């Protein structure tokens, strides 16, 4: 078993929501639980989740690789996903991505040398009217990201990163 007892208890709660013959319906939730705990979903975690749920590993692999909210490679402790789909691009999404890359010193898909930040390009987040849109750690949506708002967000995230580094030292 690769996950904590608490993680398996959370997965059990998700499994309880579905009939016994539809356990595969809990794959997304189980992957989310595993990713929060491990930081990403390795091949070993995918196999473990599949075994625990009772589905073929390929069923879990398909979900993990289809949705860009799941990371199948290690990422920084703070992942910034920037929407550059057309509506966001038309309202400054590409410029916002350039600002984030410049201020963090990495390109899209890269992680900072200290392992704290990863910047990725994301698909539509369903908030086109509030473009440009970003998502922090797949949980916190940031909207209308002007350069001033980006500066404030990145300052806040850098302070959080410094705190995380202090805790792990």
TrEMBL record:
SUPFAM superfamilies: Thioredoxin-like (SSF52833). Signal peptide: none annotated. Gene3D superfamilies: Glutaredoxin (3.40.30.10), NADH-quinone oxidoreductase subunit E (1.10.10.1590). Its cofactor is [2Fe-2S] cluster. Keywords: 2Fe-2S, Iron, Iron-sulfur, Metal-binding. It catalyses: a quinone + NADH + 5 H(+)(in) = a quinol + NAD(+) + 4 H(+)(out). Transmembrane segments: none annotated. The keyword Metal-binding applies. It comes from the Bacteria. The keyword Transferase does not apply. [2Fe-2S] cluster binds at residues 83, 88, 124, 128. Belongs to the complex I 24 kDa subunit family. This is NADH dehydrogenase. It comes from Kerstersia gyiorum.
């Amino acid at each position: 078993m690769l996950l904590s007892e608490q993680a398996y208890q959370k997965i059990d709660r998700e499994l309880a929501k579905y009939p016994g013959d539809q356990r595969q319906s809990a794959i997304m939730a189980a992957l989310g639980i595993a990713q929060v705990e491990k930081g990403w979903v390795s091949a070993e975690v995918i196999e473990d989740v599949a075994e625990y749920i009772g589905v073929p590993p390929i069923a879990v692999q398909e979900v993990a690789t289809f949705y860009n909210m799941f990371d199948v490679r290690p990422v920084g402790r703070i992942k910034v996903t920037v929407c550059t789909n057309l509506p966001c691009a038309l309202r400054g999404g590409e410029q916002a991505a350039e600002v984030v890359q410049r201020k963090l010193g990495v390109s899209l898909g890269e992680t900072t040398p200290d392992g704290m930040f990863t910047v990725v390009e994301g698909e539509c987040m369903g908030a086109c009217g509030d473009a440009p849109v970003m998502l922090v750690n797949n949980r916190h949506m940031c909207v209308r990201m002007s350069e001033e708002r980006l500066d404030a967000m990145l300052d806040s995230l850098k302070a959080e990163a410094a705190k995380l580094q202090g805790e792990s030292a």
